[in-house]
Fold this protein.
Amino acid sequence: MSNLVQAVEANWYEASARERITGLLDAESFVEVLGPEQRATSPHLAQFDLTGAFDDGIVVGRGRLDGQQVLLAAQEGRFLGGAFGEVHGAKLVGLLRAARDSAGRAGPRAVLLLLDTGGVRLQEANAGELAISEIIHAIVEVRSAGIPVLALVGGRAGAFGGGGIITACCSRIVVSEHARVSVSGPEVIETNKGVEEFDSKDRALVWRVCGARTRYLTGGVDRYVKGSIQDFREAAIALIAHSPPFKLAVLKAEQQRLSDRLQRFGDCRDAPEIWRKAGLPEPEHIAEISDDAFLAIQRIKGADHVAR
Amino acid sequence: MSLDDVLTSLFPTGHQVERGPAGTLHGLAKVDGHGKVTVVGIVGGTPLGVDAAILLAGHVLAAVEAGDRAPIVFLADTSSQNMARRDELLGLNEYLAHLTKSLALAGAHGHRTVSLLFGHAAAGAFIAAALSSQSLVALPGAAPSVMDLPSISRVTKLPLEQLERLAKSTPIFAPGVKPLFAIGAVTQTWEGGQPFASRLADLLR
Amino acid sequence: MEQFQVHGTAKSRAGGHRRQATTGVNASGNLEVLVERVLPDHECQVEVATAVAGFRTVWEAVIEEFFERTSPGGLRFSINDGGARPDTVTLRLMQSVQLMEDEA
């Protein structure tokens, strides 16, 4: 039989959750927990006439990154938009609590969250929302135990809703150009507030408001990488050693950082206004230039920080 | 219940809670057997945006810094997260996360944290204002939700009547205190006509 | 939503020693296939859960042709379908067998 199985996917955006894991971690080091053969599926989708996924759209397990033990979760953004349902959320909470409980010399060096989510799965809205809250609390506990939690965002769904909030609870965040990190989706803002407030069909606007480049330049995320899985791997390895702990001093620094941002840019309604105020070169072109040219720009003052 | 009724019922001997900018609330009060409590809140049905979130987080962190482990009571009569281009541009996700993390830090530092909901709280505001405390109490008037049924209907393309019918047999998606209590998001419900002060004192124990 | 099984007999056992493999995603126009080596050598089976009802005979034809072509003895295939076309179904099934037979 000719080889039907596709060549190894190198691009994060195009890759499935499992392909991202394979490319991210050390070869053959990943051991999945609650894999598809366990059939931990959603008990709620059938009443909505929906078929499910054998892993409920999230892959969790342990592996090695550059020789170091890590725990990992990867959302499949193409299954129901990577949204949080009851089982999906429980798998992630369980993974985080396992990290917390095994913290120590023999425990994981980091937890990697490959987020690709539109937020809560509406058919399981209450369970999804509660899960998101439990995930946030668990991330705080893992960080408090001295284990960095890294968010890696660059897929089709982005990190919206509760996913956007979870992202900003992580120690460090890596994004690629495709990523959007936000709370309300553009369509929701348009539906509620009108097209003047947010034209959700204006893709360029969506990326200027929610996209990776804006988040990176303002310090909302920590690394902006070109889109290969290898790029994410290198960034994750580098960031593990530079992750802020979870403690009062760090949150006070975060309070200062976020207050400063509001003070300086609180009257801006679009990204180029921020870039202009911050003195960045050619504000109108920042969205269009190549990744190489973009990475050469110095971020706004305060964006290079060790808070969160 | 109005905010003043809630405050009177919680703190019958008086309080120093005041309204601040962006719909926020802040001040000290006393609870029998616990001494001082820090009160914060988002009220008046005001959506929770970047301006309110940073103020509230600041109050919570100040309480932690005071180091006295005084309980923190979060009053909520809000809406959803602020749906505004400006807030998203400025990184609303970071501000809501920061408020949530600050409350989690407070809990870890020995401050008992309780959210008392007496109005709406939806989606991101539900996470940051209601679910981020150790306990969530629904007072009369509480209307927690992830998303209202008509919006769920529009987004999922499922008929509203089907959703309403399904909501009768499962607590897994519909808005309201009842289903959210059933799945464990709401810890207690307090009926009107009882003094809240003693119930709060019990809860903080 | 429809669920059904298609049973078959195979002339030979599927090669390789892998116990299970998974391929595809339950997304629009796509399908997720979980394959497990859990049946006797000359049996094969496909369990289908599909969001699109009314095409059972098409599924049966596609699956029976797949059984005939690949003789996947011992393998049970479980599918979560998001409305894939028959050629995509065939492709995923073939990919899953290849994963099972791959000793690399």
Remarks:
- Chain B has one domain: 3-146+179-197.
- Chain B touches chain A through 59 residues (CB under 8 Å).
